[in-house]
């Protein structure tokens, strides 16, 4: 009697049986952080549907409603449950749109970092020699400059050269480019270290013997085996990019007040905090801290799960 053919488990079945999934089910902190981040992401994506007011629509903004406290305070208004800012915008709606802007900048900047860092790191690690030395010296020079210092100089020069009006129109693109280009060495150095270990393995030698080209070996064979550190770096780098955007907005070099991000909200309300309108700065600040905290905690969890030396069975 012929043996019954074995049914190959589906991708979902393999995922449910993986160490990654079992570790996630056991770790309450990871579950909580993932839930908070997913909630923030959904609220940001569907902000136009969820927000009771549109902070970009001047017809829905009444300056007479400026600096109203949250609804639980004596002078609060029930329709503005988190209060209003100095321009009369509903703070809850503005935070939803601001979180959307901050996450967009953070995620897009990290995608740019990863794109540049992966290509440069793969080339440096696999080709080696003078190419490796040149690319890593460029990375060392880049790392010697603070991201914030580079961003402040570039954005200030652009604003002075092309005017504030053009800068406000291109603020999001400029922030993504500056933060993304300034941080690529983090990826490049990590990928290079992984490639140096992977390129000496037998499957790479077999690919060379079969006549595969350099690009195919790097991107089809080596790159998939270096994705674990990329995932860990990306979670931390998204948090760092969000902080960088908030810091630049606080200094007046980020998003304009008319296009609120969490950083520009904190900046716009800072001058009113001592007059009693604490909610304009404190509430967006708490949202920013919570968002960055859960991203960092997820990064720590991913680092532990994807590190085989820490696997405890």
In CATH, the topology of the domain at 105-255 is named MetI-like fold
**CATH top level label of the domain at 105-255:** Mainly Alpha
Distance between the termini: 39 Å
Order of helices and strands: HHHHHHHHHHHHHHH
| Mean pLDDT, all residues | 82
**Superfamily at the CATH H level of the domain at 105-255?**
MetI-like
Kindly report the oligomeric state of this protein: single chain
Question: Low-confidence parts, pLDDT < 50 over ≥5 residues?
Answer: none
Any guess at the CATH architecture of the domain at 105-255?
Answer: Orthogonal Bundle
Strand content: under 5%
Structural class by secondary-structure content:
mainly alpha
Residue share in helices?
Answer: 55-70%
> How big is the Rg?
24 Å
Main beta sheet: none
InterPro entries: BP-dependent_transpt_permease, MetI-like, MetI-like_sf, OppC_N
Pfam families: BPD_transp_1, OppC_N
Membrane topology: Multi-pass membrane protein
Protein name: ABC transporter permease
Layout of secondary structure:
Layout: H1 11-16, H2 19-26, H3 28-45, H4 47-50, H5 91-127, H6 129-143, H7 147-162, H8 164-169, H9 171-182, H10 184-198, H11 202-209, H12 214-222, H13 227-250, H14 262-270, H15 279-305
Helix pairs in contact: 3-5, 3-15, 5-6, 5-9, 5-10, 5-13, 5-14, 6-10, 7-9, 11-12, 13-14, 13-15, 14-15
